[in-house]
User: Which sequence fits this backbone?
């Protein structure tokens, strides 16, 4: 790559892919692990309290031909609990007998949350009834992908491929039927740079011994099939992908997507439908293979945040654990502010700051 950071020709990129698959000499050094140093620094910082595990982009060390890809301190987790007496009903827009025409794709952050209408309960036949998600698109159709343009070291064609691969990761991590049933997200993990050792260590620990510090739900949606099952095969989504030139001419891609999962208890004959709502923001870097060790077709994770409603508050089992009516009646009140899980007019950072150290807020609707 020239000093100006111009795009590598497609022919050179294809040659690199062939050589990388076969093994090559003189590859750039792989990114080193710094996340835990950053995490320790964050714990030692003084000042006003913020949301626990608040997003902090890890610093990168610059040098000739390499840089550090850190991320594990760059996470945030916001859980919204559903509690009796505080949930403002099963409000909806366009659900159950109304206009269920899908909304136009989300090209930018909306200015306000979806409106509320008459309360309606979801059913097995209409699991999104009484919810704004009734007008959202299905699966990856609800994730808006922008037009590609040459950016950083990548040509227009390469950017388009990277955006498609990024959406593939979202599908494999949050929409794949097997993963939703609790299986390992092997396809999603295969898209993550295997030389990003902090991430690989994190994932290995998260699936082996899930905890508050190592929580696979930060990146993946999983239900325990012995407890709950999805209603039908449709997950409603709304969100968008954006991109820009990152450090060292990398393609930095940001994803911000809300997923709505209708579920029932796994017991035969169960017909009470509830919903779990998950909003994730994942930022990835498609690095220049001339400067960073990366396998062809993989990206480095830069940061991730998650906001979960009715997926379990203060529980770290590695699975989303929704509550149903009887459980909500005895679960007590949330200890944080009331939040609308369908509101995409505010950033996840703002939601984390609003909840602060409380950890669990109260959902205004499902």
Assistant:
């Amino acid at each position: 790559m020239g000093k100006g950071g111009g795009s590598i020709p497609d022919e050179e990129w294809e040659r690199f892919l062939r050589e990388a698959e076969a093994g090559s000499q003189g590859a750039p050094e792989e990114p080193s692990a710094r996340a835990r140093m950053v995490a320790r620094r964050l714990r030692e910082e003084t000042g006003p309290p913020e949301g626990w595990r608040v997003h902090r982009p890890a610093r990168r060390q610059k040098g000739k031909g390499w840089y550090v890809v850190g991320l594990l301190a760059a996470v945030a987790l916001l859980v919204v609990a559903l509690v009796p007496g505080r949930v403002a009903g099963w409000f909806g827009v366009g659900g159950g007998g109304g206009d269920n025409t899908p909304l136009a794709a989300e090209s930018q952050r909306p200015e306000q949350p979806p409106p509320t209408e008459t309360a309606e309960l979801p059913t097995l036949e209409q699991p999104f009834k009484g919810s704004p998600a009734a007008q959202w698109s299905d699966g990856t159709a609800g994730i808006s992908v922008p037009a590609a343009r040459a950016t950083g070291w990548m040509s227009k064609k390469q950017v388009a491929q990277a955006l498609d691969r990024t959406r593939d990761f979202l599908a494999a991590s949050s929409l794949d039927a097997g993963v939703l049933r609790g299986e390992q997200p092997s396809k999603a993990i295969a898209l993550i740079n295997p030389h990003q050792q902090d991430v690989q260590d994190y994932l290995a620990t998260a699936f082996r011994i899930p905890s508050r510090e190592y929580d696979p739900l930060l990146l993946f949606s999983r239900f325990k099939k012995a407890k709950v099952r999805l209603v039908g095969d449709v997950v409603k989504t709304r969100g968008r992908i954006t991109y820009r030139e990152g450090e060292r001419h990398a393609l930095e891609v940001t994803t911000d997507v809300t997923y709505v999962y209708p579920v029932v208890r796994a017991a035969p004959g169960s017909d009470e439908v509830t919903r779990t709502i998950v909003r994730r923001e994942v930022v990835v870097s498609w690095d220049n293979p001339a400067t960073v060790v990366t396998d062809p077709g993989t990206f480095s994770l830069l940061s991730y945040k998650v906001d979960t409603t009715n997926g379990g508050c203060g529980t770290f089992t590695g699975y989303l654990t929704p509550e149903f009516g009887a459980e909500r009646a005895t679960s007590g009140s949330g200890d944080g502010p009331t939040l609308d899980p369908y509101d995409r007019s505010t950033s996840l950072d703002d939601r984390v700051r609003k909840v602060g150290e409380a950890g669990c807020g109260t959902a205004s609707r499902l």
In short: DSSP finds eight helices and twelve strands in the chain. The longest helix spans residues 156-174.
